[in-house]
Amino acid sequence: MSTQLFGEKVPRVEDQRFLRGQGRYVDDVLVDTPSATLHAAVLRSPHAHARILDIDVSDVIDMDGVHLVWTHEDLAGAMAEPLPLLIPHPALTHGRTQYTLAKDTVNYVGEAVAFVVADDRYLAEDALGRISVSYEPLPAVVGIESARAAENLVHDDVPGNVAARMEQNVGDAPTAIDAAPHVLELDLSIERSAAMPLEGRGTVARWDHDTSRLQVWTSTQASTGVRAAVAAKLELDLGQVDVICPDTGGGFGVKINHPWPEDLLVTRAAQVTGQAVKFTEDRREHFISAAHERAQEHHIRVGFDDQGRVQGLDVEFWHDNGAYTPYGLIVPIITSTQLLGPYKPANYRVRFDSLYTNTVIVTPYRGAGRPQGCFAMERTIDAIAAHLGLDRTAVRAANLIQPDEFPYDQGLIFQDGRPLIYDSGDYPAMLEKIRKLIGWDEFEQFKAEAEAEGRRVGIGLGCYVEGTGVGPYEGAHVHVETSGKVKVATGLTTQGQGHQTAFAQVVADTLDVPMEDVEVVTGDTRRMSYSVGTFASRAAVMSGSAMHLAALRAKEKALRLAADALEADEADLKMVDGSVQVKGSPSNSIALGTLAVLSNPLRYAFDKASQAATQFSVGDQDKPPVDEDDEPGLEGRDFYSPNRSTFASGMHAAIVETDPETAEIKILRYAIVHDCGRMINPMIVEGQIHGGMAQGIGGALYERMAYDDSGQLLNASFMDFLMPYVTEIPGEIDVDHLETPSPLNPLGIKGAGEAGVIPVSAAIAAAVENAEGFSITSMPISPAELYDLRQRHAEHTSTTSARPPKQDGSGEESA
């Protein structure tokens, strides 16, 4: 393929529209007139766990301007059944999903209980206030410790609050650890956080009685998934439902879950009322009724030799999946498999329990289980280095998979049900790059100079491997118009990743047309009916590859048509700047637009262009106007379905300063080396990395979901939920790239969307630990927590220094 645009830092074509305020989001969707659109509001549970005794809506039914009010009793058929469990798994023995509107019990603060549609949102909200619900509060299970204790149950029919228990083994880890020269044990944890996209969830629906068709506009990462779910629940044919995903102000994983109760309620309400119905959640609703992620606790036992080489790794962890499991076990499975990173422990055992709590559901959030696994592994590597008195990079080097070992089979089953086989990489080269980029060898001198000034500084490192481009497939349609413009469609959605630019680069290169002639549409089921969605860093790998293949089909047809028109052999033709030329004879050419005309032999001529394509045009009289194995139009359609995932990788390093008095943590410098195979657009890749890093800093230092013991979320607003501003992001970010092409797809690319967030907590924890001189085992870490750790460390140091040395006598080292 041509590389005219592939690999170039082409400015994003979509940015000007957004910067000028010309974006069109779900809440901007205008169906008919403003007064013709009804507005919905949802009554949500104030209790984390309670039995519903009675719901009285009598004061709402006759309110002027209220068109309907529903509780679970008003739903019928599939709408009255639980929401789908999207990704079943054999280990998910006790999967549970919520009802569209709560039936009998509520299991988290924010669960939908009643639904109102009125003339406007104000009236709908007022109506909610008139609904009277009688609850019998039940004990709430909040947090992993409470769930494990199982003194109370979230669901009466789920013993021990265990939704799933899963184990994978490579070799014999317990035996290898017992035989290892050195053994350590660690307990690590990461708390809950959430995606918090700029735009919350929203849905608009319109039902056309004349055609029996439903149109849905929704802010989602899976338009075709929403389409299928709505059709199933409303008992419609798939062809009766169109789902359009307009501009979307961020997703980060929270919008991959589908259907939300509001999706179904709004679409059904549009059917019943015969008018367009809109729901737009407010920010508090997003906090208490969307989805969270991250919370896990890990217990690790590791055996290693004198060089720090891991001989056995045994990991047990507990995952908080919230009150329900609509997205299955994807997050903990990813943690359990991606925890290994770029390393090759000889023996590995991992077990996890996925636990119910009376809190908001957990679905993937950018990184999707990888930050937790990376934190666990990198903290373990640092602990090994500290125990042996070795440089932390030396211990990493001793455990890295080598370039000549690819493809490398880790012996595990990944989230897609396929073998965890790394396709390509060069981890030793990456380690050398990050050492130089951050100034690893020069840091000790800097640290000594800072300490002489009374300052505390530390350096940390985090390494990861990220499974990307997960299947099962994505498709694309490429259509060359008679104007020469190229229309491209994929069902995969976009939430700000720069798809319109990167995908246009792929198609423009394949067809050798000007990029400004390529228009890309995503997330519209009318244009592309079959798709999976945007998640798991899969868009470029999946849709990018599909677009390349579809464009190749269009190219093959263009060359075939041009060979006839130019009376030349196909082998003597080439595509140049929107036309097909005879090699060595640029003047002997034909424009793609003209070929598009010729590709469609019409009966009727509508304009000058179509006159050349009527069925009465002079041509080869010995064959039909359209070949038996062809179809009209200059277009190509194809799908890409990989054997398994590609595996991107990266390493982050941070230098931090911790204030001796206030315990504030400041990032002085940050460095990143990243490998996503061949880069379509390095500028977009770096933008994704910078954005992910900012979210990672939020998760490392600021963001947490603060639940009290009764299950109330105490910080459900941006006044209380801390997010990093630009002032908290380091001004000095050095990024370098390594490109090891993937052999699994035609473009040699790997995903990049989640790369920036994965190792941030690990790198910052290591840097803080290096600055302070004591272990950091839990994230996020606030100044108050760091201050408390200092106090406990000082007390422990003074206590142990006052005791005589303890003689074990066993000859074994304790952790």
UniProtKB/TrEMBL annotation:
Entry-linked Pfam families: Ald_Xan_dh_C (PF01315), MoCoBD_1 (PF02738), MoCoBD_2 (PF20256)
Annotated Aldehyde oxidase/xanthine dehydrogenase a/b hammerhead domain residues: 20-139
An example molecular function term from Gene Ontology annotations: iron ion binding
SMART domains (alphabetical): Ald_Xan_dh_C
Record's keyword annotation contains NADP: no
Keyword set, alphabetical order: Molybdenum, Oxidoreductase
Coiled coil: none
Region of interest called Disordered, as start-end residue ranges on this chain: 615-636, 790-815
Flavoprotein found in the keyword field: no
Protein name, per record: Carbon-monoxide dehydrogenase large subunit
Source species: Halopolyspora algeriensis
